[in-house]
Amino acid sequence: MYFPVGWPKVLNIPQLGHCSIRQVICNRDKILFAILTDDCLSVWFCKPCVPIVIHRRACESIEDIGMNELVEWRPDSSMLVVATSGGYLLLYKLGVVAEQKGLYEQVDSPHPNLRRDSAELFIKEVIPPLHLTLDEEVGIEGGITSMVCIRDELMLATTRGHVLRYRWDGSQNRDYCLDLRRVPFCIDQQVSKAIPILESNTYIVDIEYSPLVGGFAVVLNDGRAAFLTAASLRFDPNQVQGIWAQNIEDATCASVNHKYRLIAFGRKNSQAVVYCIDESTGGLEVSHHIVLSSKDYPGSPGHVQGIRWTPDGCAMAVSWEQGGLSLWSTFGALLMCTLGWDYGLHVDLVRYNPLHIRSMEWSAEGYQLWMVKRQPDHDPGGNSSLDCVIQLEFVKSALTVNPCMSHQSHLYLQGEDRMYVNLGDNLTKVYHERPRDQLSSLYGSDDMFRDVGNLIVTSMLTGSKQWTVVPIPSAYSGTNWPIRYTAIDSEGQNLAVAGRTGLAHYSMLSRKWKLFGNETQEKDFVVTGGLLWWRDHVVMGCYSILENRDEIRIYPRDTRLDNMFVKMARVSAQVLLLNTLRDRLITFCANGQISIYSLSMKENHSLGGVEVGILQSVDISALCVHPACVVSVTLTTLRTETGRHASKEVESIMLNVSGRLLMVQREQNCREGDDNSDGNVFQSYTCAPPTVLASRVENVWVPRKSRREKPHLTESLWLFCGAHGMMVWLPLFPRDGDKSHSFMSKRIMLPFHLRIYPLAILFEDAILLGAENDTTLYTSDSNSPFSLPFCVLERTSQVYLHQILRQLIRRNLGFHAWEIARSCTSLPYFPHSLELLLHEVLEEEATSKEPIPDALLPSVIEFIQEFPVYLQTVVQCARKTEIALWPYLFSAAGKPKDLFQECLARKQLDTAASYLIILQNLEPSSVSRQYATLLLDAALDHCKWELSKDLVRFLRAIDPNDVESPRASFILPSKYGVNPQTPPISPNEEDLSLVLGTMQVSRGRSYSTTTSPKVQQIESGAPSVTGHHRDALRSTSSSGECSKSVPLRRKKSVPTGRGDTREPSGSAEEFFIDVILQRHARRLLSAHRLTDLGHFAAHLDFHLVAWLGRERDRAARVDDFVAALKQLHSDFMWPYPVLCHPVSYYLQWKNSASGSSPSSPTIEDRMKSLTVDVVSPDANGRSRVGDSGYMSYAGGQRETVHSSAVPAPAVAGSSHYTASVSMTSEFRSSSIVEAQLMPHLLQDESSMMSEESSFWGDEREQYMPDASENRWSDVPSTLVLEQLSQELANKGSPKSEVKLRYLLQLFMEASCLEWALLISILLQDAMAVFRTTNAARSSDHSVEAILRLKDGLVALCHWSGTECLGYKPFTVAIQNEVAVLNKLLSSKQQQQQNTLSSSSSPRLSRSRRTSSNQDGGNQSSNGQMAFGSSNLSTVECDGRLPEGTASQDRPSIGSKNTDETDIGFEGNLGNGSDRISERNGADEMRDQTVMEAAREQAIESTGCAIS
């Protein structure tokens, strides 16, 4: 309600000297305040804070009658009285100097740079020149302990037990003086026997008077407290009676709240007790206690020094003797406590508190708190006084003075010259794309939101904690301070403020203020009874100074502020409160009359005039002691009995009278013949007797409109009762099928506690909004005025749904709780509310030391089971709770094993993973491993890759020695005498690449793709290409040999490098994990789900190349090429090609290109003469030639790699670069270069070249006996390719192309030619198709595999001609590859026959080492794709290219292409290793083959290069 902001300001008091400050006190209208010191009295102006007059007493006067002790203002501010320590009253007269206009004259500086150019720098307030004169000195018998004003007289409490009554002229009113020994005291006014005070030396030390409470609050010197009352306010001594405040024996001070009729007593135990008057007995009843919790301050700050209520009675400031200040709401909610502020490390609050307050006083409207701060004197001989007056700024809620703002959901606070606005939280619709096949993360940004039907609409709570500070213009606040009323409209776009006179309003959209153009009109009226917005109009209750009458004024927003546009309605008395409901206006006036008006807009009125008509007037003077005690008046559609579809035409009146909430229900008479359209409409309403709904009510919130979707929340009444918490008056609608009570329903009042102070309620969103105070320390220098912390304001919020559900379940109203919860399931924090409900009940019951007769936890569990988030709620609550409470939770919720199984059945895999953590702590490791395996299998089936990755890591982390020991919160002793595990080794990039699926291989080459890893590049800086590859030499064993030659070995951690010499540790668990992963990978590949396979390999560190090499003839085989190609189109969202010309157009180009020469050359001649021109990309970033992207160079470079015999022709029209790649048959050198892979679409500055070579072995002479007879036309001409590139405009997304080309590289490395052919055709990459068929010549591929490849290509050609004509041009271009495969088949079959015929005499044949892109010999560990990212994952590839030769030109090592090459190769092999003989089908020789292959790898790993 009240919140401090900024730094406390220190007031500079002139001529203070060595005197201490005794008291600071304001006059009744809070414009002037007096500061009393030991020897002087000064009067100050509040705004601006400047001194006006000071009177210092002479030293002789101080010696004679003592120092100043107390000061009090006369109600009309014409006099002040000072009580001295010697028992004297000093009466001062305060007058205005008539001949002087103003006290201060504002003189501008003659220097032009120091002149004030802005009107804001001039003080517009006229500070009156006052003179203060000592008028009278009156001696009092006995010392004066306290004094208080009662109307036009002064009441003095003396040490002799008397309460003396003095007039302001110094004379004593002896007839009305009181003697405590003659005043009867009792506990209430019904006791017939009252006993006066019999103890001697008993007197009053503090006295406070309140006419609304009807008496004096007094504190006696012995610690007792009482209330003095009388039959009349004249307080005849014969009628005065004392009422004891029971159960209090250590009272120190007293303070009275007039509006709420409360009496607060401070106590020596640092607490305070607040009493109210029991109207039935007249006794004092405890309302609430003011107690600091141990969380706020663990110690005791001493006895209560002072208590001061704010002017509006909505807050109470409490100070303690040992220092500290706190602020409490009317009924005891803590708003602020300085004991929790940050004063720095050097301040010990127990020994020394910087805020040691002696006196307090609130300024006008409670915007400042004046405090006399006294510090302990550390230097008694010092010359400076340690006392000072500080001023703490406050902002407050508009509900304190304008309770009609409770209708608004916007949170804002008002200060003396600014407003803090927070437009509140709201639920915003959020649209998510529904994953089509769990692959939504693969699609690019251009693929999002293609289909509205695939969108998931959810809601998200959006809001800002930032405050919008709206300063009130000085043109208005300068002359109308203080700001009294503020209002905001329902949209939060318009503000209105009203100060001492007039009003102004502000637009949040235009950020402009509107003020009265005629300042005279602004000064002619005072807003007295509230301010609010109705549609586009400002409504207020005001008093017209010019006409001396009270009225209701309505000003339109869109016109200028002028009385010519105002609508006035005269009222009978001063308007105190007003409120609206739809088009009804309700007012409460000072004569106790409530009036209800109808508001309507005039038709055809250019200025939007408003018509005001009165409907009903009700006199409620009998319900309140005084009109000032009515806190709020509200018009509402709520009634005590409301049906689910009841009529809400007749509104009820809600009254808050001194904290007691009353409901007055209005009824409409329906007599026949009544005409509701005439002027006697108000006579058709009658009022029922009032009903008391609650007591100790600070604020009331009523929803403005009801929603059928959420009738409970939008038809409930919310009350805040301070220390007693929040209360909601909830409707309980009968069930639709319940006939017994279907005619009406009941309501129930539910209480619950909050952790924030509520300022606004979002009814439909089930959220409370509030504010809280925090501090920041800027300096620790105690001498600095900034040594006190800086106060900041923070917005807070709290969900309240779980509180309502808990109270309903406790009262066995589960059906109503279910109805409310069902209406809130769309809220984004609904699962969190259920979790809070379960958590609070669990914490309360599980930690209870007493037995619980009726436990609530089973009922809560049963309630949450009605919602689909039950499993998630239980496990999240368990994970946020101590393990010691888990048995109690799962005794009601069920066994964790059963809940885990239920999660699997419902496919809630993430929730099941959370239960796995529970099982890990409650069950042995063998159980958690078993369930983790089940969950891993399910996660892989549902493509939950991140979850699968975590589960694999979880399974690998289980210690086999721990499988039987439970994972409890305490450590059990080890059952086995085993040594602890070796510390984990931090793996590097190479180590990760060596962790294969079921084996551990130490090899030279570590990466599967054609670019080096970024991590290694960063570590090595910029190494030379040769040096870079010296550490990663290629392995020359084929993939088939690798898969057979390395023994199975498992390890507990990744190897540290090639030199890993540890013994293999048997790990059946890890082998089983690998079996699961391989089985799932086989399932994905068999189903043609390449995208899922890529995600699978990338997330789970699955080594795809090695596995594909083993699965080449099993899972990686393709039986239906057409279906597989269609699946690729679907998975990668790759569009089918379309034709731009008839098919005959492409056939013509094909025929002209192929028939130009009479005879086709041999394959060697074709390779020597082959030239592929790569031209610059087009505007779309696509190459005009259907190339795989392996031959591109960096932009700006111009390099030509060709044979000296064949010149490279230039390509016309190439704007950036031209790269001609010619195939040659000889190696020039053995230089090692770095090969990289990057498609054309990525315009990166790094160039990439593929590493390709065709397989040529000894069989070349066998199937090519005569080159002249073989007319090969396996490569189409460049003209066909260039024309073909025009058909590539309709391509998939760049991300999809990156993934496809990466997969193509992987399949080529693993020698999975069927998938490589499919991807090449999908990309329409003719060169990739040629490389695929060329790679089929390897001896690793069987006749059946080549036959499937040929049949698949034939099937695709047939399919393109019958079903998908878009592929027809491309299949025409590559149809010669069928002939190539036919010849290869015949050659393979002849070779097999020769091998079988010579099987009786086996011969040794040298092992061949093939390139990585053809035979998969390099089983790299980084074969996974970086799916989900736009950049291509780059890993190292050891491509050693001879100078002057492109990568695809070089035949594999070991081929007898030329004599020079063969001799060089034989020499290198002689230096390297022995030959390994091939025994076809001889199992007994397998071990020897394995050992020889391993020896070759070991020799190569030592650094022996092959030149």
What features would you describe in this structure?
The structure is a single chain. By secondary structure, the protein is an alpha+beta fold. The protein is built from 35 helices and 62 strands. Strands 1, 2, 29, 30, 31, 32, 33 and 36 form an eight-stranded antiparallel β-sheet that branches. A six-stranded mixed β-sheet has the order 16-15-20-19-18-17, with no helix packed on it. Strands 49, 50, 51, 52 and 53 form a five-stranded antiparallel β-sheet that branches. Helix 5 (801-810) packs across helix 7 (830-846) and helix 11 (896-905) runs antiparallel to helix 12. The model is unreliable at 378-384, 434-453, 673-682, 968-1066, 1153-1274, 1400-1491 and 1497-1507 (pLDDT under 50).
Structural class: alpha+beta
Give the fraction of residues assigned to helices.
10-25%
For the report, how would you describe the main beta sheet?
Answer: 8 strands, antiparallel
The count of DSSP E runs of length 2 or more, i.e. the number of strands, is 62
The number of distinct helices, counting runs of at least 4 residues, comes to 35
